[in-house]
Design brief:
By secondary structure, the protein is of the alpha+beta class. The protein contains two helices and nine strands, in the order αβββββββββα. The chain has one domain.
Length: 144
């Protein structure tokens, strides 16, 4: 009976191991809405798990980010997928402004914008302009 218990504990530890060792990322962003800086949110995200941040005030927004490392051996290891959703609270509740996926290189700025057709995507001209930089955290940087 003891072997069965030990084997079960070892199996549970093996299954839990990858979840405990999941990569975590720091996402530093700057968000402009209608040409005005709405905020500079910073989010810590576990790989494959979405994380959200809400800011109520003027202007208000909710930013949801999910980071997925690209598991293609032909791609550089520092390339990530960023799933980004930005919502704004209005009369009908949370309204989605953008839901997009970006390819990004760790440590480099990437941007996303919503503009009228033919318009140059700048902070001032876009109805939504987001810049983000993603960095992998070392385990010592996020342990309790």
């Amino acid at each position: 009976m003891k072997r069965g218990v030990v084997a079960s504990l070892l199996l549970a530890a093996c299954l839990a191991g990858p979840a405990l060792a999941a990569d975590r990322y720091l996402v530093d962003a700057s968000l402009w809405l209608d040409g005005e800086l709405a905020g500079t949110p910073t989010v810590i995200v576990e790989a494959g798990e979405p994380a959200s941040l809400e800011r109520m005030g003027e202007p208000n927004f909710r930013l949801t980010v999910m980071v997925e490392p690209i598991s293609d051996s032909m791609m550089p290891q520092d390339i990530l997928w960023l799933h980004i959703t930005v919502e704004q609270y209005g009369d009908e509740g949370w309204e989605e402004l953008v839901d997009s996926m970006l390819g990004a290189r760790e440590g480099e700025l990437t941007s996303l914008s919503v503009v009228e057709e033919g318009q140059e995507p700048t902070r001032e001209s876009a109805s939504l302009f987001l810049q983000a930089q993603t960095s992998r955290l070392l385990p010592a940087e996020y342990q309790n």
